[in-house]
Deoxyhypusine synthase
Amino acid sequence: MTPTTLGPVSAFVEEHFRHFNAAVVRRASEAWIRLLERGGRMFLAMAGAMSTAELGRSLAEMIRRDKIHAICCTGANLEEDLFNLVGHREYVQLPEYRDLTPADELELMRRGLNRVTDVCIPERVMMLVHDRLLPRWQAAEKTGQRRFPHEFVYDLLRSGELESLYQADPRHSWLLAAAQKDLPLFVPGWEDSSLGNLFVARVADGTLHDVQIIRNGLEAMLELLRWYEETSARHPIGFFQIGGGIPGDFAICAVPLLRQDLKRTHVPLWAYFCQISDSTTSYGSYSGAVPNEKITWGKLGPDTPRFVIESDATVIAPLIFARVLGW
């Protein structure tokens, strides 16, 4: 593509992102485009508070236009996109959050507001979603059905039950786009989320009787292995990682598990790797480990295109998505 065929954001990146960290943004975007042009697939690992940062404004279109083909995310990112969809107008913006005192924070808590940097999620919105998931959890328990956390959420979104409650533009919900596509989704460590905590609370108070209706992280890894082996047999698969934590480390381990632990040497390595992180290169930090280290673990090869962008993902990810979309 030449700059004259690109949208304004893409043309700006092509013209001005020439060196240093900016050049990595451009090169990573171009490598993503080339991967897709040769029939590749892209896997997104998403940590951080990206849903509350409203990354769905660009991520949803990436999903709709088949630029992303599977996602591994935290439980918080799973639920917070849904919270935003049904509660956006009730969120409290705190542009001066750096000036808050401990007493200010306590007052927010007393008002039922949970702060995520410069915005607060009302507890009422969390309970609104909980109250509509609880009957689904109870029905699953009654019938002996076991499902992954996101499958209950997909079912809720597809039912149309929430449509009259939408407070944000549904085109900006990446989770709704994923549900409509039936996008493969993997959510390890779901218990580290508000809905995960509420689910456990319902078991603890006797409303539910068995945690086993939620399929766990080990089962999610089995599903990921099946997806990767089937997909990589037909397409090279790239790995785009936002932040560190469990979504990145859990998902990228699928390849060495297949190749080293199961001895399936025909399984290809990840065909592309890019990480956006504000954790600079350091000693002993997973998020600060350079991609070359992943070669020693059998995750990437010496010829795999590798990129590290040391910056704020809320700034960089939308730019890369825009470039891949040609915006």
Observations:
- The chain has a mean pLDDT of 95.
- The longest strand covers residues 41-46.
- The radius of gyration is 20 Å.
- The chain has one domain: 3-325.
